[in-house]
């Protein structure tokens, strides 16, 4: 007697590879470990950087227009049509849509296939992002209105909403014009622990690569490099940092802004810029070679990015590698850092040097708390509730 294969479907309307979306990858790993075959419907993006047993990547779109936002919306229809050809007869337990576009695709297919849908919100769609667009300003605003209306419609039809924390849930539900209910689950944007281990050995990756003295302390910023982050201001105050500290900036950003950073860093001997494209293992190894992690953002207009809290992937990667954190006072994030005492929050760039000194003077205390904090927010501990609820409601 044959056993029916259990399946679940993810819908991801992104052009970028899956390897830079750890919450999607970790979700797939969790379902696969629970005995499911996972189908991820997405756009072609080259090297996904993901090879997980029982996880299938199904390409249903070759490209997404980026300049004309209305053309971008039109790709949803072909995405739905192409996905349906593969979906029918697969007997999925649920359709999970990631972010507004993924939700709309999952929602439309859910109606056609008469299947329940789940909304997994990683990025909250807010009007500020579209008002700031320089080109096609009117079209971008129309795009926002159409997309938001469709998101609201299918969000109301969702059986479950998964989002990183309460503050981001309040932002999502406010922009979608209805009240938070009991169908919300909070899953931090954190990594999975490695093979059951919380702590991995330290590395010398950055010291070897950039010939950094073994006695120096590496202060690492890993992430987006742009005006919204305020990297230039951080660089300009590195002269106030304790002696023996090196500031490593790892990430990518607009070419013109990166050029400004290169010109500026040449005036500050404590600053190193790293732009290597790293896979998951290399990225973890790189982070484990630092001593302190920095999280920073100065753009308050984009609430999706400013209200960070448990959506801060870089924070949890720092914590996983036992790096105490320095951050400016970002909503949600500041409370998390201060409550767990895994780092120090400051008001402005001029205070970063003092924060570094305080962390170094009581390093073992803060480092111990990074491990405790990561154990509390580790991905599988929270995502298992999503699997349990969906399985219970499917019986």
TrEMBL record:
Query: Which Pfam families does the protein's record reference?
Result: Glyco_trans_1_4
Q: Mark the transmembrane ranges.
A: 100-122
Q: Does the keyword Membrane apply?
A: yes
Record flagged with keyword Membrane: yes
Q: Which SUPFAM superfamilies match?
A: UDP-Glycosyltransferase/glycogen phosphorylase
Which keywords fit this entry according to its UniProt record? Membrane, Transmembrane, Transmembrane helix
In its UniProt entry, what is this protein called?
Glycosyltransferase
């Amino acid at each position: 007697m044959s056993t029916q294969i259990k399946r679940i479907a993810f819908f991801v309307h992104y052009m970028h590879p899956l390897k830079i979306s750890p919450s999607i990858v970790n979700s797939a790993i969790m379902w696969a470990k629970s005995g499911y075959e996972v189908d991820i419907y997405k756009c072609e993006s080259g090297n996904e950087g993901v090879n997980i047993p029982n996880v299938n990547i199904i390409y249903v779109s070759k490209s997404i227009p980026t300049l004309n936002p209305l053309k971008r919306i039109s790709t949803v229809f072909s995405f739905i049509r192409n996905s349906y050809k593969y979906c029918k007869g697969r007997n999925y337990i649920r359709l999970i849509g990631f972010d507004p576009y993924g939700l709309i695709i999952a929602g439309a297919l859910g109606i056609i296939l008469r299947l329940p849908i789940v909304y997994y919100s990683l990025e909250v769609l807010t009007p500020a992002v579209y008002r700031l667009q320089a080109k096609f300003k009117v079209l971008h605003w129309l795009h926002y209105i159409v997309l938001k209306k469709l998101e609201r419609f299918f969000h109301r039809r969702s059986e479950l909403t998964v989002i990183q924390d309460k503050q981001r849930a309040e932002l999502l539900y406010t922009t979608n014009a209805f009240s938070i209910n009991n169908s919300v689950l909070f899953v931090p944007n954190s990594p999975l622990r490695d093979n059951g281990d919380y702590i991995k050995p330290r590395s010398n990756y950055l010291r070897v690569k950039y010939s950094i003295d073994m006695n120096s302390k590496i202060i690492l910023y890993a992430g987006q490099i742009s005006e919204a982050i305020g990297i230039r201001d951080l660089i300009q105050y590195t002269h106030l940092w304790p002696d023996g500290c090196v500031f490593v900036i790892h990430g990518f950003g607009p070419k013109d802004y990166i050029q400004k950073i290169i010109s500026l860093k040449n005036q500050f001997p404590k600053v190193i810029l790293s732009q290597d494209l790293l896979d998951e293992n290399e990225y973890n190894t790189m982070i484990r070679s630092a001593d302190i992690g920095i999280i920073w953002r100065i753009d308050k207009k984009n609430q999706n990015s400013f209200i960070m809290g448990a959506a801060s992937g870089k924070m949890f990667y720092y914590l996983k590698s036992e790096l105490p954190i320095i951050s400016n006072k970002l909503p949600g994030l500041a409370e998390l850092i201060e409550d767990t005492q895994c780092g120090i929050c400051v008001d402005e760039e001029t205070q970063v040097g003092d924060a570094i000194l305080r962390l170094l003077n009581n390093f073992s205390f803060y480092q111990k708390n990074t491990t405790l904090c990561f154990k509390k927010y580790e991905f599988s501990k929270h995502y298992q509730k999503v699997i349990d609820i969906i399985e219970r409601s499917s019986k």
